[in-house]
Amino acid sequence: SWPGGEPAWRTYVACWAAEKGCGIEGDFVECGVNRGGMSRAICHYVGFEKLSRRFWLLDTYHGLDEALISEEERAQGKNAHRDYYTECYGAVCETFKPSPNVEVVQGVIPGPLSRVTAEKIAYLSIDMNCVAPEIAAAEHFWDRLSSGAVIVLDDYGFELHEPQKRAFDEFARKRGVAVLSMPTGQGLIFKP
To answer: What is the pTM of this model?
Structure first.
């Protein structure tokens, strides 16, 4: 999932949040999966196959949809890495084939959000690299998040993702919560 990258601490933060989610009611949701490295690590870390809940994996499985990039994001070079992402839906389905409680859902968010039938969410990861789909996912799932659930914002603290940071600061402010900025570049929102 991360050629040339070293995601150990970022993965640990996501695994910690997922493990916390194991102690509360609800399914897991990851919006922005790419090849499934983070979700695969989480499944292994928490023994997800033994849990009686589902892990919903939503992505285009071929990178960022150009139509969702704002002019500000485009000016910052948000689409510069488009060649990094390749078609991977089949590979992700194959990776999670032995995991009957993992649902691989393809589509451009917000479209596939309605396919997540979970009434409660215990863990939510958001990593779609631009504001529009990320805020759409957060707004869609906020009321379904169980008390104590964590939203992991993968790109919150990175300079290239400043529009996302501003959008999530506003999202959190409207809900009376704050985003915890992590040294990994991630942000965490805790549902009261």
So the answer is: 0.93
